[in-house]
Design brief:
One of its GO terms (biological process) is L-cysteine catabolic process. By secondary structure, this protein is α+β, with helices and mostly antiparallel strands. The protein has a single domain, classed as Jelly Rolls (Sandwich), CATH 2.60.120.10. It contains two helices and 13 strands, in the order H-H-E-E-E-E-E-E-E-E-E-E-E-E-E.
Length: about 240
């Protein structure tokens, strides 16, 4: 069955509300065609969605009015995650990084992950897992309010899975304001951190579908955590 003609090209969004509206339209368009969302999405649908989301994020990161700053807050002990939007199709958040702060190595639970740099610089290190698998799943643990991928459970319980997991560094990317990156679990695991310099950084992340569980890797072990946020907001999707 032939798919309908693609939707009209949107105007470059300068405000968060306009960006969210255009993102919602892009994701709903693919769902309306009967495509599931995620890294196993139909190839043509995935390519079309990736092109649309990249264009929107780049347009916003290059021309925005700085309205994201009202949601930005940095922490001394780890980077902070601020949720701006979440529905069944996608979620959007601002992550704030001080120099020296970085995420643990993590996956993206079969979701698409786009990242746009709003301010400063960030460094991405990708990894290939060369683990020796063993039976058994990692127990789940909640993130504390705030912050980082794979933070320990509030009660101090272990989230380690049995067996040793080895990671091999592969590709690195250095991104600056206006750059847009993409990753999913079929590409690599990765960690993200503030780039070189003395100034803080800020990134805008879009995950589709929203990530409900994330795996992190540290010290040869795998952990499963429930993502948390330092702050939650209800930004309205408007033109």
């Amino acid at each position: 069955v032939a798919e309908p003609i693609g939707r009209p090209q949107p105007q470059p969004p300068r405000y968060l509300g306009a960006l969210l509206l255009e993102l919602r339209t892009a994701f709903s368009y693919e769902r309306g065609l009967g495509h599931s969302l995620g890294n196993r999405q139909d190839a043509a649908s995935s390519a079309r969605l990736d092109s649309n989301v990249r264009a929107l994020l780049q347009a916003y990161s290059c021309t925005n009015t700085g309205d994201w700053r009202q949601y930005a807050e940095w922490g001394d002990h780890s980077y902070l995650r601020h949720l701006l939007w979440c529905d069944e199709e996608f979620e959007v958040m601002v992550l704030c990084w001080k120099p020296g702060q970085a995420s643990r190595v993590h996956n993206h639970a079969d979701s698409h992950c786009w990242l746009a740099v709003l301010d400063g610089k960030v460094h991405e290190q990708q990894y290939r897992r060369i683990a020796r698998e063993q039976d058994g799943a990692a127990p789940e643990a909640p993130w504390p309010p705030g912050c980082e991928h794979g933070a320990p459970a509030a009660d101090g319980s272990s989230t380690e899975a049995p067996g040793d997991i080895e990671l091999e560094p592969t590709r690195t990317n250095d991104l600056t304001a206006g750059d847009v990156g993409y990753i999913n679990d079929l590409i690599a695991l990765h960690s993200i951190g503030a780039g070189d310099g003395e100034e803080p950084s800020c990134t805008l992340h879009v995950y589709s579908p929203p990530i409900r569980r994330v795996k992190t890797y540290e010290g040869g072990k795998e952990a499963v955590s429930v993502p948390g946020f330092f702050s939650r907001h209800s930004v309205v999707a408007t033109p």
